[in-house]
Amino acid sequence: MSVRRLVLIADDDEDVLALVRATIERSGHEVMAVGDGAAALSAMAERRPDLAVLDIAMPELDGLEVLRRLRADDETKDLPVILLTAQAQAADVERGFATGASAYVRKPFSPRDLATRVDDLLA
Amino acid sequence: MTAAGLRTMPLARVYLVAGITATGLYFLLPWDSLAQAILYDVIGLSAAAAVVAGTRINRPSLPVAWYLFAAGLFAFAAGDVLFNLYAWAWHRDPPIPSIADVFYLAGYPFLTLGLVLLVLRVRPGDRRVGMIDATLLTVAFAICQWIFVMHPLIAGSSDWVANVVALSYPAMDVLLLAALVFLALTPAWRTVSYRYLTASILLLVVVDEIYGISPGSFPGTSWLDAGWLLSYVLWGVAALHPSMRDLSRRQAARGQRLTNVRLLVLAVAVATVPIILVIERFVEREVDALALAIGSAVLSALVLLRLSGMIRSLDRHRRSERSARAEAESAHKELALKNEQLVEADRLKDEFVALISHDLRTPLTSIMGYLELVLDDHNLSEEQRGYLSIVDRNADRLLHLVNDLLFVARLEAGQLDLHPSELDLAAVVRQSVAEAEPRAAARGVELACEASDVPALKADKGRMFQLLDNLVSNAIKFTPEGGDVRVSLARVNGFVRLEVADNGIGIDADEQQRLFERFFRASTASDQQIPGTGLGLYIARAIVEAHDGSISVESVSGEGTSFRIDLPVEQVGSTT
Fold it and tell me: Cβ of B365 and A57 within 8 Å?
């Protein structure tokens, strides 16, 4: 926690985006926040984050597609990615992990839990 | 033959044997003797008596037809007696016509009427084709009868009374045969009784014909008598045979089929007139052109009727086939449309489920997440913290409701997909109880857990947590302060048994049956305004049943409730 890292967060709901930002900034990390999948990819191309938190249901490109492209790119294939989703089915969770997610957080989430996951992956 | 043997022999066969024997005896007696005459009369009268007896014994549904037969045969026999009286009592030749002729001729209408009654009874009136065929045959026979028998009979005589009498016999034969043919075209022809009847009538007609062609060639006793006598006997046998009941039983007539045999018979009938013309040409006799022309015209008309009937029924079939096909097509289209609508409805439902899942969770994410952030603030007053914890609890309830509704929606849609894995249920139980501990403590309820190690189960971990959470939360919710909730897990025979027992408010006996129904809430719960949706136990049962297990409840109102769940152990021996 002592090291300040860069975390990209992407969610199309502004309030949830602000909640995730507040949660991660409280842990002392720098945050890049975007509202859709395409923006997430271009932001990451400009400045490579240490971790990404992606909402699954987003316009333009959804979280799973962004994750797929990250894994296909040698530069980002090992980037830790947390998927955030309101979809509750076990099948969705499986699909997320199969695509290469490092962790999976279900909405609604406890900010404390999310912070712990982020710190664990950045450690 | 012993008396016992007689009793077991069918009556029809007894009479048949006796009749044939008597007929044989007739020819052994001195010819043209009184004894012969008496035996002849006895055989005739016995036939009438046999028909009456057969009708009494077999009880057909149309006895009147058979009594008409009996009357007809009796009239014949009476004619025989009178005929013999001329010879033996009055010692003179019978005049032409004689009283005997009156009785003979009176017999035919009775017999014919009886046959007609049977035909009408057996045959539903709409079998037009059968009627036409029978008429065709009858007309053809009538033409032959006229040309070969009746016309020559009156050719040389101008005594019209004698002519009428002479013509009456072959005319009656035509009627009798016609009735027989009509009966043949009903389902009745398959019965044994009908075959005896046919044999009897054919014998009668054939002998009548032979006699009719040259009555003078057969004075006194002749071999022709055998035909008449056997005809009597066979009619009696037909009445005594038990199958005579079927002759008057209304049967579902099957469609008239144009079999080859039938086609051949019809062809012969149609060819009658040309054949007669050829024969007349060879015997070089004068052709009765008028009779042949009329007969030919009638036959042609009948053939035309038959053809038109066939073509019409073919048309009807084709039309009904076409309409049936159109109907099937429209039904198919409708089905496809319905199917499309169902698929659409299914899609809408899935969308709705996704909506609940996503669009209700997203605002809840903000509410619950920010609430947690605010509650982390140490500068809150106690009062503010209290208010916010109420918001937190209610947000939690809302989330539970959303989850439960989503679960039920998926369950109803048959989308409850399980992800079973080797599961240590004891660990799940311990963890669930540990997580429920703070809630129990907050309500002042003692929560105890006795989870012994059980064989590993193949089960969906998430669903098992959900099941335990539902049951344990319920138990805590319905148990007043100071009460106990005990959760136990043990192996019982082939099952792993999970029990969640409390000494809370209990459930009324008459409501326990309905406890696992969707949205059902026990009156003890609603009376005390304990919040809930009535979905928890419905979901619990669904989870248990999806794992091939069973759930049951025992409860005494005011004393407590115990839920028992038995899950089958699949892999016996693989303990953890």
Answer: no
Q: Which amino acid is at B61?
A: S
Per DSSP (E only), the strands in B83-142 are none
The answer to whether residue B378 neighbours chain A at the CB level (below 8 Å) is no
CB-count burial class (<10 Å; 0-12, 13-18, 19+) for B425: buried
**pLDDT tens digit sequence for B151-202:** 877 777 777 787 888 788 888 888 888 888 887 777 777 788 989 999 999 9
B406 to chain A: which residues are within 8 Å by CB? 88
Judge whether B494 and B569 are in contact, CB under 8 Å.
yes
Burial group, residue A8, by CB count within 10 angstroms (0-12, 13-18, 19+): buried
What's the Cα-to-Cα distance from B420 to each of B445, B451, B459, B498, rounded to whole Å? 33, 21, 4, 18
Q: Is A110 on the interface with B (CB under 8 A)?
A: yes
Residue B341 burial (CB count, 10 A):
10
The verdict on a CB contact (< 8 Å) between A112 and B372 is yes
Report B:339-368 residues touching A (Cβ under 8 A): 354, 357-359, 361-362, 364-368
Contact at 8 Å (CB) between B234 and B105?
A: no
Residues 6+ apart with CB under 8 A from B501: B475, B485, B486, B488, B560, B561, B562, B563
ipTM of the complex: 0.89
First to last CA, chain B: 90
Give the CA dihedral B337, B339, B345, B348, nearest 10 degrees. Answer: -90
Chain B CB contacts of A35 below 8 Å: none
Give the C-alpha separation, B184 to A42, whole Å.
97
Of the residues B362, B398, B402, B421, the best mutation for testing chain A's interface (the one with the most A CB atoms within 10 Å of its CB) is B362
User: Quick one: CA dihedral B393, B397, B402, B407, positive or negative?
Assistant: positive
Lowest mean per-residue pLDDT among B349-353, B485-489, B537-541, B564-568: B349-353
* Amino acid (1-letter code) at residue B222: S
Q: Does B286 touch chain A (CB under 8 A)?
A: no
H-helix segments, chain A: 14-26, 37-46, 63-72, 90-99, 111-122
Residue B277 has a CB neighbour count (10 Å cut-off) of 15
Cβ–Cβ below 8 Å for A111 and B369: yes
Nearest to B200 by CA among B236, B244, B246, B245: B236
Verify whether the Cβ–Cβ distance A86 to B417 is below 8 Å: no
